[in-house]
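Q: What does the assembled structure look like for these inputs?
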Amino acid sequence: MDLGIAGKKALVCGASAGLGLACAQALVSEGVDVVIVARTEAPLVAAAAALAAGGGGRVDWVCADVASEEGRARIFVQHPDFDILVTNAGGPPPGDFRDWDRDTWLRALDANMLAPIALIKASVDAMMARGFGRIINITSSAVKAPVDGLGLSNGARAGLTGFVAGLARSTVSRGVTINNLLPGTFDTARLAGNFEAQARREGLSADVVRAQRIAKHPARRLGRPDEFGHTCAYLCSVHAGYINGQNILMDGGSFAGV
Ligand code: NAP
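A:
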């Protein structure tokens, strides 16, 4: 299927690794010109080189923290306009809400709620003026099924979800859709880190924790980042113009609800 977006320009945040990188990969392979962003320069440059070597759209990178105003400004000074925006940043740490002070909450809100809102604010009016735009926020399955111990993520992402639900209804008549993609358990460095942390807590090996998680999953496997990336690219396509304001759960059927 031709997604009809070759030659469009995309900003993909949190894209030197994991799900963001997979989204960038899928868009580049569709001929989209992509700007990738992450905070650490060496892996970001390596990711850009690998993307460019695969052929397709052009690839550029900006080393920036999307959770900071200064970092976001650096992106838009170099690249003022995008047709496609994929917002993403690292998830907040787990813990007990009794230990979290105001600053802890503000860090989570900055990265996982206010940064995507600021990125949308910087892009959406120009998209509407041109009559085409696709905005995808990478959030979490925790939006559908909040997890005790991930309260910072549950809270910040719920705030973004509510905001997007309102805004999306006011942009779609001008060709701009806004949707959230909710990953379940995808095989990325972050998930491996979670398995290692759980293994330390429970006195097990990370391989055992991983095997236990897979055994309990209805799909009997973890999600592959490329599956996530291709779904993101489809939602960015010309064919997805009537999918708007949705929370699209990609968890292999793990959420036991209708
Ligand atoms: P990952 O493998 O750790 O990759 C995260 C990427 O984002 C890296 O490129 C990282 O590079 C970049 N990044 C992190 N914070 C950033 C910031 N403030 N500004 C710019 N770039 C930033 O993570 P992932 O597994 O792909 O997860 C992506 C998102 O999905 C996270 O929010 C995660 O909580 C959420 N999620 C993932 C899963 C899963 O199964 N993998 C499940 C539920 C939710 P630098 O560190 O160099 O910046």
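The longest strand covers residues 176-183.
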